[in-house]
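Journal club side-thread
Mid-discussion, someone asked how the predicted structure for our own chain would compare to the paper's figures. Pasting it here so we can look after the session.
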Amino acid sequence: MAESEFLLPDVGEGLTEAEIVSWKVKPGDIVAINQVLVEIETAKSLVELPSPFEGTVSALLVEEGQTVDVGTPIISVGTGITVPIAPAPEIPAEVTDAAGSITHEAPVEEAPANLVGYGAKGHAATRRRRGDIAPTAVVAPAASAPARPASVPAAAASAVIAKPPIRKLAKDLDVDLREVVATGLAGEITRDDVVRQAKQASVFRNIQTPAWADEREEKIPVKGVRKAIATAMVQSAFTAPHVSVFVDIDATRTMEFVKRLKASTDFAGIRVSPLLIVAKALIWAVRRNPTVNSSWSDKEITVHHYVNLGIAAATPRGLLVPNVKDAQELSLLELAQALENLVITARDGKTQPAEMANGTITITNVGSFGMDTGTPILNPGEAAIVAMGTIKQKPWIVDGEVRSRFVTTVAGSFDHRIVDGDVASRFVADVASIIEEPALLLD
């Protein structure tokens, strides 16, 4: 049996290191191609790594919680195994084709099956013996019940079923998954199951405000997403000279428009909020003020004639900024669907590095936390970011009379190397004009 080491791959553009979050296998387990071996945390997301080969786990080379560089061996697997069946006479192995015909196959030399895209290391060719079955990947049946490799130990088969983001949520909320009642269609624990359990265990306190710990202080390692956020924000704040502008807006017509969209059959089942209108307003304003959608280098300014719209999302793992690619090409309905998918994916911890790459301009919705406005820091590599404040009823003068209107504040921060004050002001004013009168989008 040959030993193969699985090296930590670069699962995202430019990844240099990752933390081993949790192993899904242990020494002695038999693994199949594409079976999840481990969950890792990069600087941007949680990622499950599938096995690039099949065989028996010899050793876990890195402990959970340890951060290692890309290219580091993390697991050793004995490959080239065969799975014996009942003794067979000394004749060539029989193979039944799709039509039911039986043919004879001569012994062949073959390497263990290998997952395309990884490339294996240390594989040795093995000879298929008469009466043996060549190693194959486990194929899920068409039945509704989830397939499980035949090699999974009984203890593992009886364990709770929960996806990595759900396990992370349970850990954050101090929920023991063994005590959670699963309601998923395949017997898996869902996000709602975990939150319900957390609420039941926290009757006398808010689940997001845990009781004081016994220790007077807590040390939190700076790594993963938090380390990436810190590096990016310091780089942005001390590289790009920021300038910010603000404007108060009568958003009453936007609120009325959102109400009509929610009642529309076209938007049935889709989350519609004022953020959708702000996003569409930003795209409209970019077309009128293209330099805000730019990137700076020491030699040139690159003006992007497309909008990869970033949405700053607060998640249990920290601040993530995934973006909607080519948002300028989307209809209002398509943009609503894209924003909903983006936020759900981010909050569930499933955002992939590619989904956060190549953003051109960003929205941060501080209003979702009850804030009126703020001075956001630019997402590195971008020239503008818009902050959307809370929308609340306030006294507002309309045609010389004081009336109750829905009012919000929109702020914009800009890279002053690229965006001058007049362009920044016109851009924010254009965003404001759409929020005040969404019908302008029809022009």
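Post-session note: Residues 81-158, 202-208 have pLDDT under 50 and may be disordered.
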